[in-house]
Structures are given as structure tokens and as C-alpha cells.
Design goal:
alpha/beta, 9 helices, about 280 residues, TIM Barrel, eight-stranded mixed β-sheet, Ala_racemase_N, D-serine ammonia-lyase activity
Length: about 280
């Protein structure tokens, strides 16, 4: 964060003239002074905080985190894996691991995974496809640092990139095949494609460990009707089951079926560990 009042007039004029001068470039200029201050401290009045800022009621947060696993006792094979993109805070992520007994966290981007790792999280599912060897090398570095890393795939080229990065750094990734269950954003479309991709992943063992599938339909959380939402989730579960059954029939591992969204935790969420 920086304030125009702390930047000399010459630097402000230059920034105005250029129009798109980044804060990073401005902060490296000898003409600039970047103000870095703690937005709030324990004991400060709420009215003294600068906005925008995120305020968390810890009592409510901790109560909800404890209540989540209690509400799922009827589903012993359901493992909780919250998504870090909801808060982007490793401190809150640690609370989820401790109080909700989460098996790990989901991250949407490589930089999010790195931030969670630096905050002490050691089990990370990158719940979005990535492309490019450099990104897989960064994820391999986290595995090299002691993290359990699970990646998802919907194409062979990405599988090859991940296997190359794992081989170079001497680590292994857990792998999930992403199945398109109605989101129409990514994932393989058919059972046959899922089986073919899973076989390709297994061909790169031990660097890639085929563990299951991801069946995600995020748009379902925006369905207002509870009955309609249950209907959509039922169709997701049906397709996920058909893919899982086909993989098992082919002798392929499918111990994890992961998906969900936070629109209604009791309708569809989490990581299902299928035994």
C-alpha cells in the first residue's frame, strides 16, 4: 500500500504522465517512499481501522469450523477439504485443519498453493488445471519441501509436463482425472475419455499416482431452489459413479472422488474417499 502524500511531487507527476506506472516500479525509484503500516492491532477500535479491510469474528468462525465435522458424522467416508480461495489466509487455513479436521486445503492457482505452503499447510489439492512446465516445477518444489500435492488433469500434454517436472525433481504427484459433470468449463466429457487419461497417468508411475477423479459443478451453488439443487447434484453423483465404476473395472485406482461447492455443505461438498 502506498499514499500519494508520501511520494515526492516529481514522482507523482511522472506517474501521472505515464498513466500505468506500477507500484512495484514506483517503490524501486529513489524518488519514492512506500508507506507500509499494520492496518490494525489488538485493542484498536473498529472505527480506527482503514477501509477496505477484512474483519473476522473469531468466536463465530471457530464455532462454524467445529460445527462442520459434527454435521457430517453420518458420512464417515467424507473428508473435508476447504478451498483457500475463499479467504486467501494461511492462518484461517490452519484453523480449518485444526478445528474442522480438514485433510488439507484446495488452491486455485500455483501462487495460492505457495502461499498456503509458506503458512504451514502440507496437503494441497490444486483444484484447477494448469499448463506449462514452469508451473509444474513450482508445484514440484512444494512436494520437495514435504508437501503432499494433488493435481487434476483433463489432457495428455499436461500429464506429460507434470511427469517431467516430477522426474526432474525426484518427487511424485497424486493425480485426479477431471470429469465434466455439467459445468462445461473443463474436464473430459465421456467415461471412455476418463479411462484413457487415467491409463496415461498410470503409465508415468511412480512419478504420477492415479488416485481418483474430480467431479465439480460450481454453478450448482447458484441454484436457488433446494429441490432443483438436489436434482442437479444427484446427476453429478450419477456421472461420477459411472466413471468411478469404469475405472475400477479396468483395474485403475479411484479411491478419491472430489468435488463440491460451498453453496450448501449438506447438499454437495468435500472430498469423498471411496473404499
Amino acid at each position: 500500500m502506498w499514499r500519494s502524500s508520501t511520494v515526492p511531487l516529481a514522482a507523482v507527476a511522472a506517474a501521472t504522465a505515464i498513466g500505468a506506472l506500477s507500484i512495484r516500479r514506483l517503490s524501486t525509484s529513489p524518488l519514492s517512499r512506500v508507506s507500509r503500516r499494520t492496518p490494525g492491532r489488538v485493542g484498536d477500535f473498529v472505527s480506527s481501522l482503514e477501509t477496505p479491510c477484512l474483519l473476522v469474528d473469531l468466536d463465530a468462525l471457530e464455532t462454524n469450523l467445529k460445527r462442520l465435522p459434527e454435521s457430517l458424522t453420518a458420512s464417515p467416508n467424507l473428508a473435508i477439504r476447504p478451498h483457500a480461495k475463499a479467504h486467501k489466509s494461511s492462518a484461517i487455513g490452519q484453523l480449518q485443519l485444526q478445528l474442522s479436521h480438514a485433510v488439507g486445503l484446495c488452491c486455485q492457482k500455483v501462487c495460492e498453493a505457495e502461499a498456503m505452503f509458506n503458512g504451514g499447510v502440507r496437503d494441497i489439492l490444486l483444484s484447477n488445471e494448469i499448463y506449462g512446465l514452469e508451473r509444474y516445477e513450482r508445484m514440484a518444489a512444494l512436494a520437495n519441501g514435504g508437501a503432499t500435492i494433488t493435481l487434476i488433469f483433463d489432457n495428455i500434454e499436461a500429464v506429460q509436463q507434470a511427469a517431467q517436472a516430477a522426474e526432474t525433481q525426484g518427487i511424485h504427484f497424486r493425480a485426479l482425472v477431471e470429469v465434466n459433470v455439467g459445468q462445461d468449463r473443463c474436464g473430459v466429457d465421456t467415461v471412455e475419455e476418463a479411462v484413457e487419461l487415467a491409463k496415461k497417468i498410470e503409465s508415468y508411475a511412480p512419478r504420477l499416482e492415479m488416485v481418483g477423479i474430480q467431479a465439480y459443478h460450481g454453478a450448482a451453488q447458484h441454484i436457488r431452489s433446494y429441490d432443483e439443487k438436489k436434482k442437479v447434484i444427484a446427476s453429478v453423483a450419477e456421472k461420477a459413479k459411472s466413471v468411478r465404476d469404469a475405472l475400477v473395472q479396468e483395474g485403475l485406482t479411484c479411491d478419491v472422488v472430489t468435488g463440491g461447492r460451498n453453496g450448501n455443505v449438506l447438499v454437495g461438498s468435500g472430498e469423498w474417499c471411496v473404499h
